[in-house]
């Protein structure tokens, strides 16, 4: 029996008493992926990106392991909720315009001590001050450095459009603006190299593109390592007691950890290993998060129809943003229909072995977005569901 067939047998046994649609996390694979992230981090702490997990029970599970420290959150409302739930080190990875959230933060000593907000523009400080509503707690601030690679005098840009702070001088200037402002304290610097950490460099069937990506990423890592170190030195001249420098992502953990200026690594998708993380030379993970849809029709030879399935991932639209049917192996979408809102036809020889009510297992293209479709995750150990835990959605929390 192949490894994939063995996994399917375990999942079928574990969920035989459950009706699909349902979502699972294979804890053996989840824990093995956590170990791999720590190995690649080389002793530097790993901050867990909650966006890629979206389940408090699994955040708690991974943070209970030595080597994982703190959460990287994605909205201010989520950050405050996590802090109230006992997470005492929450770094908000994106600037916010949540005025009511800032009022809560500035009025509560526990929240203010637990949550660090992201800033890349003094105008964001103005918004926070205007939202304080009398709250006087010091707001912890992290500055974000733009990591994009700029070529040909800036005419060519590789990387996400995030922070406007590209040069060390620009980051240091905002650090000075924060330092001059009562009620704020710079405690960290973040730089997320998404064009390295989040772009696969070994795309199946695309050897030339893959080589071009590897060359780009090698150049980007060299340029960023020097610029990030210079930016951290510039900020430390303003804030000698800087607490942390955060960088990296699942696809770049070992490279970012090699930089002396970086004190901690961010990662999250590497715990679930969705399909977008199949195409990397830097690591190989074990898919741990899957969802199952039931067969509800058999329209003809080599075709079955499952219920639901239209769960595209965010980002530039394309087939790589669709979930991939993975168990049984050999199923594919009908190119005229794709993944449907209510039903999805699947083609391929394995369809003829599937009966009404059988499960087809899928992997989502991205990690945490799966949890926006399900209110619970069934935790599988071996061939048994050992626990059912709520996702953010299952706790009534839909932050974005």
Identify the notable features of this structure and list them briefly.
single chain; 400 residues; 9-stranded mixed β-sheet; 32% helix
How would you describe this structure to a colleague?
The chain has 400 residues and is α/β, with parallel strands linked by helices. It has helices at residues 3-14, 27-41, 56-63, 76-84, 99-107, 109-114, 122-131, 168-179, 194-197, 207-238, 253-257, 269-272; strands at residues 22-26, 46-49, 68-73, 90-92, 115-119, 139-144, 149-151, 156-158, 184-191, 244-247, 264-267, 289-300, 303-307, 324-327, 332-333, 343-347, 359-363, 376-381, 384-390. Strands 1, 12, 13, 14, 15, 16, 17, 18 and 19 form a 9-stranded mixed beta sheet that branches. Strands 2-3-4-5-6-9-10-11 form an 8-stranded parallel β-barrel, surrounded by 6 helices. It has a two-stranded antiparallel sheet with strand order 7-8. Helix 8 runs parallel beside helix 10.
